[in-house]
């Protein structure tokens, strides 16, 4: 699995929570494209991976208060 922003072959795995958490802010929101620097396709893949991880309880939906 490659981890470079400019790599077109990069993909996000919902089981790799450590990587997904880099793209989620302190409140549990997915960072926008302007902040992540990903392409639109990669941003969509990121969103799907984060949502799957949340659904399987690998990541929280919101930050603990």
Can you describe what's shown?
The chain has helices spanning 17-21, 33-36, 40-55. It is built from three helices and no strands. The model has no long low-confidence stretch (mean pLDDT 88). It has 65 residues and is mainly alpha-helical. The chain has one domain (1-65): Irregular (30s Ribosomal Protein S18).
Concise account of the structure shown:
With 65 residues, the chain is mainly α.
List keywords for this structure.
mainly alpha; 30s Ribosomal Protein S18; 38% helix
CATH architecture descriptor: Irregular
CATH topology: 30s Ribosomal Protein S18
Provide a count of the helices: 3
Biggest β-sheet: count, sense, barrel?
none
- Helix amount, in percent? 25-40%
Structural class by sheet pairing and helices: mainly alpha
Number of domains: 1
Strand-residue proportion? under 5%
Looking at CATH, the homologous superfamily is Ribosomal protein S18
Question: In whole angstroms, how far apart are the ends?
Answer: 33 Å
Order of helices and strands: HHH
Write the layout of secondary structure elements.
Blueprint: H1 17-21, H2 33-36, H3 40-55
């Amino acid at each position: 699995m490659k981890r470079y922003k400019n790599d077109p072959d990069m993909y996000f795995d919902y089981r790799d929570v450590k990587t997904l958490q880099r793209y989620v802010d302190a409140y549990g929101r997915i960072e926008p494209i302007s902040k992540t620097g990903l392409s639109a396709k990669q941003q969509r893949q990121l969103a799907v991976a984060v949502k799957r991880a949340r659904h399987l309880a690998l990541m929280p939906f919101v930050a603990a208060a």
